[in-house]
Design goal:
This is Cell division protein DivIVA. With about 300 residues, the chain is an all-alpha fold. The protein contains 3 helices and 2 strands.
Length: about 300
């Protein structure tokens, strides 16, 4: 049976490249991954060596069993009287060779297993020590980088605070300038609005004055026309009153004339007077003209206002 292959010796610790803030983290991670892989391979090789030793032990037990069976057969052959002496020496040589081969196989298997176990333990110990050292170095580097990062963060925070104060002051100045510009623009707009309002008020006042003057002229003209119509009406009323007085006088005269005519037209007493003289009958009086004919013509109707 062939001896198992010996595991390769652990590689020397690699030198990591130095970066701006320490070792290159990618190289450290890759080296740790390689060491972890090598540890797993060493453990697997050790397990294989242990399994090989177990197989050799089984082979040795099987050889010992065969040897016991051979010894039993040889004993049976020796007990037989026919040809036992001729075969005794040959069987003895075969048994001796078998025992020697078994002893060689056992010693080789034990030596190989011990060597493999020692190498695996040594490699695992060295790998563990290297991994511990790398982990310690990585932890120290991490602490150093963390401290440097904290210092850098504090520095950046201080710079950001100063920048924030400066930006706040600049924003305040910009706000004041914007307020001043807005106030100036508002003042200009108010002035323009006041000017437009004043112009509009002046235009409306002028239009109102013109309209008022026109209405005043129309009112004065209407008042003059009304006064003229009032004068005409007063004159017509006076004429009507005069005409009424004249008509009343004529009506009174007509009534007197009618009464006189009626008196004259009354029947004469038929009795003769005492002296026998007859009075001549009065001449017939013509009937008076109607009051409408004797009345003066009606006054003209008063003019309408």
């Amino acid at each position: 049976m062939a001896a198992p292959e010996k595991p390769q010796s652990a590689p020397k610790t690699a030198q990591f490249a130095v970066g701006v803030r320490g070792y290159n983290q990618r190289q450290v991670d890759e080296r740790l991954a390689e060491l972890t892989k090598e540890i797993r391979e060493a453990s697997r090789s050790r397990d294989e060596a242990v399994a090989t030793s177990s197989d050799l032990s089984k082979a040795l037990a099987y050889a010992q069993k065969e040897l016991a069976e051979t010894k039993a057969a040889l004993a049976r052959m020796s007990s037989s009287p026919s040809g036992a002496g001729a075969m005794a020496e040959r069987v003895r040589m075969m048994m001796q060779l078998a025992e020697e081969e078994i002893a060689d196989l056992r010693s080789a298997a034990e030596a190989d297993a011990a060597s493999t176990r020692d190498q695996a333990d040594k490699y695992a110990h060295e790998t563990r020590r290297t991994a511990d050292k790398l982990a310690k170095d990585a932890e120290e580097e991490r602490a150093r980088l963390l401290s440097a990062a904290k210092a850098e963060i504090e520095k950046l925070n201080a710079a950001a605070g100063a920048k924030r104060v400066e930006q706040a002051a600049a924003a305040e100045r910009a706000r004041k300038e914007a307020d001043a510009a807005a106030e100036a623009a508002a003042a200009a707009l108010r002035e323009e609005a006041d000017r437009k309002v004043a112009d509009e008020l002046a235009a409306r006042k002028k239009a109102f004055e013109e309209e008022f003057a026109r209405k005043k002229q129309e009112t004065e003209a209407a008042l003059a026309a009304a006064q003229a119509q009032q004068a005409t009406a007063d004159q017509n009323r006076k004429l009507a009153l005069d005409l009424r007085a004249k008509v009343a006088e004529r009506i009174a005269a007509t009534d007197v004339a009618v009464k006189e005519a009626m008196r004259l037209l009354a029947p004469v007493d038929e009795a003769a007077p005492a002296n026998g003289d007859r009075k001549p009958s009065p001449a017939p009086v013509s009937a008076p003209k109607s009051a409408a004919a004797s009345a003066a013509p009606a006054a003209p109707a008063p003019a309408k206002a």
